[in-house]
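[job 0417] fold request received: SRCR domain-containing protein
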Amino acid sequence: SFFLGNSIRLSASDKPCSGRVEIYHNGSWGTVCDDLWDLNDAVVACRQLDCGPALGAPQSAHFGQGTGQIWLDDVSCSGSESSLAVCGHRGFGTHNCGHGEDAGVICSGKTAYILYVHSGNVKLAGSARCSGRVEIYNSGSWGTVCNDNWDINDARVVCRQLACGTAVSLRQFAVGTGQIWLDEVACTGNENYLTECSHSGFGVHNCAHSQDAGVICSDNLIRLSGSNEPCSGRVEIYYNGVWGTVCDDGWDLNDAAVACRQLGCGPAKEAKLSAFFGQGTGQIWLDDVACSGSETSLAMCGHRGFGTHNCEHHEDAGSVWSQTGPNNLIRLSGSNEPCSGRVEIYHNGVWGTVCDDLWDLNDAAVACRQLDCGSALGAPQSAHFGQGTGQIWLDDLVCSGNEFSLGACGHNGFGTHNCVHGEDAGVICSSKVVLFTFIVFF
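[job 0417] inference complete; emitting structure tokens
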């Protein structure tokens, strides 16, 4: 069988939906300590196992003691998470437990009737955690959602419900089988659960599985702010449609190494504390981050849960990486959307803007490609995303649309222009897809 990273299984029981909880991490199976283990945690485990609602959260090695690694301790789920790994915990392998404290679950089983569907029973069927065919659990079985009137607002709700960041695109995946549960879904985009949206009623549809709805979510994006260096700055992550900072409690070089890997910025050099790169504003998303250094994203490290913290922005975490960045790096500013904003490029050690003289969709296409942000939808001019400051690097840009970077297009030369920042160019790209696939065989 194939399982996504941080797969889960139950052991030491003859019932398929009850047993000792074990998760797969870093190449081996391990148990979960029962410190703070409760029904909310069991709800998440049962959902991850497709085993219906949680009926119990037994402790003290109720299903017998495991052996080897103990992967999680002090697990703290709200009950809406898509997996135990994204709940608050101390970090993989960090615990003060023995196997006499192994946690277990008793789930109702796949045939049980879901009394409260709105409590969050959605999954994505596909090869990655945050993209796939949308399926919803109702009346004891999983079923698909028809794509009649399916739009980005509906996708936003699914991505939010699964703690998968923001919706970046709609996509058709392999067809499902069995029940089609929902049709004519109409969300505003602000709902917490898909079942809170308007729809035609469970099982009421005029669809075939060739119309199964799918989504691609961003997962959790990352950026650096507060610095002119492309690989140094205040760490910010994108979650639930909003950029927010990371608290420096427990922040160390292992955490910085993971952020570095996400950003493609080379080895971590320093982990900066106490808002070294200036204080952010708004949301603080992560606190007590505890990475081993091998994770693929900060969201997969131990932490207290998204939005759970005891910090202020004077504790914002930052990082410095060994790579200072080559010329012609590109970034977007002035927008909360990760793939829309004011275009800025890095040249001779300084970030600067692009003038909108001759700026068109061909130029935007190159910028979106360089950003790995899908296709260009718009090429706004006249500082649509606000005016930048400092250097204006490019003017009279002429791209065919096939170039690999804006620097390779025709232009007046770096720093040669007759513009002011009221003419800063911007782009609106279709999406940025950040998908991580972890395949485990057993």
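[job 0417] notes: The chain has four helices and 26 strands. The radius of gyration is 23 Å.
[job 0417] exit 0
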